[in-house]
Amino acid sequence: MKKIIGLLYGGKSAEHEVSLSTAKAVTQALNFEEYEVHPIFITLDGEWLTGPQLKAPVETIEQLQFKSQNAFNNITEFIEANDRIGFDVIFPLLHGTNGEDGTVQGLLEVLNLPYVGNGVLASSAGMDKVVMKQLFSVAGLEQTPYVHFVRSEWKIDSDAILNKCEKELVSPLFVKPANLGSSVGISKATNREELKAAIELALKYDRKIIIEQGIIGREIEMGVLGNDNPAVSVVGEIKPMTEFYDYDSKYKDGSTALIIPAEVSERVVAKMSEMAKAAFKILDASGLVRADFFVTENDEVYINEVNTMPGFTPFSMYPQLWQHSGVSYRDLIDKLVNLAIERHTEKQQLLYNKDLSEK
Fold first, then answer.
1. What is the distance between the alpha carbons of residues 92 and 94, in angstroms, rounded to a whole number?
2. Residue 270 contacts by C-beta under 8 Å, 6 or more apart in sequence?
3. Domain span holding position 155
4. pLDDT in tens, 240-275
5. Is residue 129 part of a domain?
6. Residue 180 sits in a domain of what CATH number?
7. Is residue 343 predicted with pLDDT exceeding 80?
8. Does 87 lie in the same domain as 47?
9. What percent of the chain has pLDDT above 90?
10. 329 contacts: CB under 8 Å, gap ≥ 6
11. Whole-angstrom Cα distance, residue 254 to residue 240?
12. Domain count along the chain
């Protein structure tokens, strides 16, 4: 019997276009002999729309962008579709806010639906770079120095924040919205004026800002796959041709080389594996994460961040890492679906009635 899968994509997010590309790629990899596939599109305005069952892979992104017949269409259409269709699993292919940050995961939990990927806690903590780094500190993971603040603090005394950055951090600095991915809103700053402009840009995307000290090192990444006993992939290196790995170099101009496997020592791979698993567990992650590191010329390893819904086209780093580890793109999707069902099945064993626990 086919598994009934709902592909959830789009989203009210700056990474809407990335999500559409991911959804297209997944439809082209799914085995339609094993899955009954239903598209669930979230528009940029936040409408939830369910389309007709997909009988074959889509060839263009436009096929995924159907329109509402009702101006008041909202999330109830998805709930009604679930009642009508009976999804076995939802595959959230959402990147960024309102999708990768625990909000959608919370809805799926309330509906008691199995879903691929990380739960509410891991998704929200993994999205918020400040909270994530604070948890990494608890786990004893080495990372670069950083400063963080919220918009209201910036408005009250921007000079104090600039002074703090200049006192505690060494240039170059990387300014980031705390709750976005795909390098949206990120800038590099080497002086006070650039830093101020970078902060103003980042504040357009988020109320919380993180400023990280740059490090001279290679950008090395590792995939993590599993639930309570995760496995790790080979490692890969990102070599952007631009100054840093920004949105355009990731998705538009092809100016980034992915080197898999990366040429690093066995000791570095072992250290990264240990740190990646520790990060996965401190977040209580499940399904998948991509762990990103800096490795210096002296083989010092610093964890930068983890991405709880990494880029997921066949040409993205995470699937490529597993491809080189012996897991094809199609098999990776199957594994993630099975991990989602496994985790959901385990949750159904929990008791919510105190009286039953006493019998």
1. 5
2. none
3. 145-213
4. 775 654 445 454 445 579 999 999 999 999 999 999
5. no
6. 3.30.1490.20
7. yes
8. yes
9. 80
10. 25, 29, 314, 319, 323
11. 9
12. 3
